[in-house]
Amino acid sequence: MLATVGLLIGGCSSPSGSVAGSKLRETLPPESLARLAEAWADGGKALERGDWSTAGWAFERVLEIDPEEEVARHLAAVARARIEAETDTLEHLRRLRDLGSDLVPELEALGTLGERAEVRSVLDEVRAAARIRAAAPVALKIDIPDLYPEGIAWDPETGALFIGSLHRREILRVPLPAGSGDETEVERLVPPGNPDLGAVVGLRVDAERRYLWAATGADPLAQGFRESERGRSWLVRFDLDTGELQGRWDPPEPESTHQLNDVAIDSEGNAWVTDTYTGAVYRLAQGSTELEIAQSPGSFLWPNGIAASPDGRSLWIADWRYGVTHLDLETGRRSRLSHPPGVSIHGFDGLYAYEGDLVGILNPVRPARVVRLRLAEGEPRVVAQELLVTRHPAFDIPTTGAVAHDSLWLIANSQMRSLGPDGRALDASDLRPIDILRVDLR
User: Fold this and answer.
1) Which has the closest alpha carbon to 2: 201, 195, 171?
2) 68, 102, 129 — which closes off a domain?
3) What is the reported pLDDT for 180?
4) I want to staple 101 with a disulfide (CB 3.0 to 4.6 A). Which of 96, 149, 243, 252 is the partner?
5) Structure confidence by residue, pLDDT tens digits, 105-162
């Protein structure tokens, strides 16, 4: 689910889909990665509290180390614009233009500075120079505009997709369509009204054991939300075929505020789940009755997407401080994903392992993007970055996806921009059907 900062920063394609830093280059040294982590953390916390001055300073610290980092450059431009630092804003916008970046700030994100003629002129130049990769077709439409989908998962045995709703407190079963843009029959695997299902966040299928896992909890967006339950979150498991509830597990430290976010299942059937609010990662061992702390609270800043490698050796965790962290499941060793300059690894919502690489959905900035991180064989190191989709006309805060048939089936329009500051839905008249894109990964 989107961290708070994701709602604050709203705002000619390369034939190969490459982006800055995609060529083979030396990775940044460990001391630089450590400084980057602290700068990203400072910037994220400043954005959360609306401190634009500190945020701009923090992201400029990132840029001192990695001048080609496009997400930080975008955030620095927005932050400087919000305090009407025109010279700095123009500098950042011109650097985005020169990079050919797809991350073009929206005019509204620049505040009153966006009304000035020179700023508008340079922003037009950024837009004209920007990459566009929007070839992913709309594979299916779900005509439930107020679904507010967050999680999606795929069952390879039946070929069905499962989609959860933050608002309606339900989980849909949707057959894969025969053609692009088809409307398809929607079933309710878990209908509204189940007391053990709150706002549905991360979903994951364990096809071998016929389980459907869901991270869920009390959220202002969910129907029937009670203020007294705010900050409660739990993990549930349903029978993948019948929707019958098989278990519910609350996180440790019940006195803390929790938001269980995304789920991964390793090759042994153990469930791993991120907790965005506490910064922890929990593990439910196969056959266990309790969630255990796998990575202690405070280990991460707003951990979100999580992915397990098919060989059972690796777990990948996305957060705001480190970008992506690798956890060796055999040794327990944790290390930050290293990368060359110009590769953006911060801000992933959905994160997926595919053919030895990682696929991530980056949405704290608008426009959002989907990227593939090409990894070195046998080590947590990025050797190339490929831009798969950006500036797609269907995008309205894309959230997560499911890998099926060498494609990423992606929720394109969660429509969370229609939410108010309290997390509740505003005017629903502008909502539209939900688009699921098919992004080719081959």
Assistant:
1) 201
2) 129
3) 56
4) 96
5) 999 999 999 999 999 999 999 999 998 887 899 999 999 999 999 999 999 999 999 9
Are 341 and 366 part of one and the same domain?
Answer: yes
Say what the pLDDT of residue 185 is: 81
Q: Which of 193, 202, 188, 280 is nearest to 237 (CA)?
A: 202
Q: What angle do CA 374, 377, 380 make, to 5 degrees?
A: 70
pLDDT at 351 over 70: yes
Collect all residues with Cβ–Cβ distance below 8 Å to 329 and sequence separation of at least 6.
Answer: 266, 308, 312, 313, 314, 315
Dihedral over Cα of 362, 368, 372, 375: its sign: negative
Three-state SS at 15: coil
Roughly what angle, to the nearest 10 degrees, separates helices 70-82 and 86-99? 160
Smallest CA-to-CA distance from 434 within 165, 95, 189 is with 165
**In degrees, to the nearest 5, what angle opens at C-alpha 270 toward C-alphas 266 and 271?**
90
Hunting for tokens 């608002």 — which residue is that? 167
Q: How far apart are CA 284 and CA 280, in angstroms?
A: 13
The CATH number covering residue 106 comes to 1.25.40.10
Residues 368 and 390: beta-carbon distance below 8 Å: yes
Tell me how many domains the chain contains: 2
Give the pLDDT of residue 254: 86
Residue-by-residue DSSP string for 114-133: GGSHHHHHHHHHHHHH---B
Query: Residue 349 is part of a domain; what is its CATH number?
Result: 2.120.10.30
Backbone angles phi, psi at 258, to 5 degrees: -120, 155
Range of the domain at 269: 138-440
Segment 50-63 mean pLDDT: 98
Q: Distance between CA atoms of 359 and 171, rounded to whole angstroms?
A: 24
Tens of pLDDT, residues 193-208: 899 999 999 999 999 9
Q: Are residues 113 and 193 located together in one domain of the fold?
A: no
Confidence of residue 421 (pLDDT cuts 50, 70, 90): low
pLDDT of residue 16: 36
Distances from the Cα of 158 to the Cαs of 17, 150, 203, 318, in angstroms? 33, 22, 17, 29
DSSP code per residue over 365-429: SSS-EEEEEEE-TTSSBEEEEEEEEES-TT-BS---EEEETTEEEEE-B--GGGB-TTS-B--GG
130's tokens:
């920007």
